[in-house]
Amino acid sequence: MTETAITKKALEAHIASFLEDYRAAHDIAPIWRAPIAGFADAHHPLLARHGVRAAVAQAASTFDRERLVSHWSHRHFAYLAGLGTFGINNMLITRSGGCGRYTSVVTDLDITPGQPLETEYCLYKKNGKCGACLRRCPTAALTAADGTSHYDRHKCFAILKKNAEAYQDFGSSYTNEDGRANSVGSEVCGKCTVHVPCALRAPGA
Fold first, then answer.
1. What is this structure's pTM?
2. What is the per-residue pLDDT across 124-172, written as a single tens digit (0 to 9) for each?
3. Is residue 120 located within the same domain as residue 200?
4. Segments forming the whole domain that contains residue 133
5. Cβ-proximal residues to 80 (8 Å cutoff; 6+ apart), any chain
6. Checking DSSP bridges between strand 106-107 and strand 54-55, what pairing results, if any?
7. Are 10 and 18 in contact (CB under 8 A)?
8. Whether 118 and 159 share a structural domain
9. Phi/psi at 149 (nearest 5 deg)?
């Protein structure tokens, strides 16, 4: 690796080392995206040394509470990069499963982009079997029949708001475009991603 070029492998190794060091120094991040946001700082020595610019988009932490959609979907970026495929629970299933968080960095680093996978990791979408995540959902937000599925984001969001009332120690989940928090507490659930075949691996791989 020269001073004017950085390989994708070297960058991946450095990110892994960076996150390990972060976990060793912090029991939990009040804002879970803080580690990768720090790495993407334009003044990070590894990137700056090679003349690479990088940043985390401000829209990455925004959420439209009326339409119930993100303005910047990390999961869809991960899908386009070939990291996994979507389950009927609307979560991305990677080779390490669907239990995980994603983030993204905008950069002018010249690397070869990934491509969406041709292999389907969701068993229901692959052969009509499984559907375990449907049974795990406490609000019946997930439905499926005859090979098609539906995600009711309003039913899902109802339990997220209820959970946020109980878990307010870790900061707010989302912000507006101006950076101000537009929620109180952790609007999370995740029951459809645990105790299912795709929780920690991709059974359809």
1. 0.80
2. 999 988 999 999 999 999 999 887 899 999 999 999 999 999 988 877 7
3. yes
4. 62-103+112-205
5. 114, 115, 116
6. antiparallel
7. no
8. yes
9. -140, 160
Render 12-52 in DSSP notation, one character per residue.
HHHHHHHHHHHHHH-S--SSTTHHHHHHT-TT-HHHHHTT-
In angstroms, the Cα distances linking 60 to 8, 17, 89, 144, 172 are 23, 23, 21, 30, 14
Phi, psi of 130 (to 5 degrees): 80, -115
* Spatial distance between the Cα atoms of 50 and 205, rounded to a whole number of angstroms: 36
User: Do residues 86 and 49 both lie within one domain?
Assistant: no
Residue 107 CB-half CA count within 13 A? 25
The whole-angstrom separation of Cα 112 and Cα 114 is: 7
The verdict on 160 and 72 lying in the same domain is: yes
Q: What is the DSSP letter of 157?
A: H
Q: Where are the beta strands (DSSP E) in the chain?
A: 54-55, 63-64, 69-70, 84-86, 92-94, 106-107, 142-145, 148-151
In this structure, are 19 and 116 located in the same domain? Answer: no
